[in-house]
Amino acid sequence: MNKQNHITVFEHEKRFFNLKDEKEKQIHEALERYHGNYTPFFKLLRNGVQFNEHVGVIQIGKTTIEVLPKTDKSGEEKWRDLLIGMIKTVWGFDVKSTGSSSLKLKSNSILELYFELFISEIEYLLHRGLIKRYRKNEGNQTSLKGALQFSKHITHNLVHKEHFYVKYTQYSNEHSIHEILFKTIKLLAHINSNSLLKGRIGALTLDFPEMKEIKVNESTFKKIVFDRKNQHYQTALEISKLLLLNYHPDISKGRNDVLALMFDMNSLWEQFILVT
């Protein structure tokens, strides 16, 4: 873990920033902007913030702020391990891997846990083979396959007699599920700062087929219907949803994007008790 880019605090703790230091000033400004979008995870103080009962991680640019639970004076590592263990238990992560049955890294934060879970899932999907689906397309083709769209054919091909404007169905791996996963791979390539994961993410950008750029929101994921053919995609898509919907790009300077994965500790503890 890069200590210079890692800040650890505990729930309900206050964290003040030295605004004469450019890096700390940028972190403080990013937190102020993020708070302006309404975040329940902390409240603003003069030159600082105070966290509440939410625990997890907030990444700002390449800096990670880790918020850990704490009920006594034990060290950071104990509570980090406890939090990661609770999340694994509550969400029932069954990590698929083509080479081993466990994660390759000892996760130093929740963020790294989710990054590696996602990477392992995509590696598993690529090894198993990506599913294909029928997709409706429309456009110019050099052969008459599908239904000729006569009016559009005349409009587009008055000069190019060798083309046919048709509506056709294509069996392809280009569909919404893969577009979401590809977008998540690109996000990880942009925000990951763990050198041990960099090579695996780079391999995914090469091995996963390129998809068109899409915009995602809550409704994007609600439209996905799971069946026996795509059930094994569910974990990867759940992590995609968590990462994509909690990512807030810095549109002002482009250097301090915010990704927040935070959990209400009281709710997390209740769920942990229920499943153990």
Automatic annotation (TrEMBL):
GO molecular function, one term: endonuclease activity
InterPro entries, alphabetized: McrC (IPR019292)
Keywords carried by this UniProt record: Endonuclease, Hydrolase, Nuclease
Keyword Hydrolase: yes
Transmembrane region(s): none
Superkingdom of the organism of origin: Bacteria
Protein name (database record): Restriction endonuclease
Organism: Empedobacter falsenii
Organismal lineage: Bacteria, Pseudomonadati, Bacteroidota, Flavobacteriia, Flavobacteriales
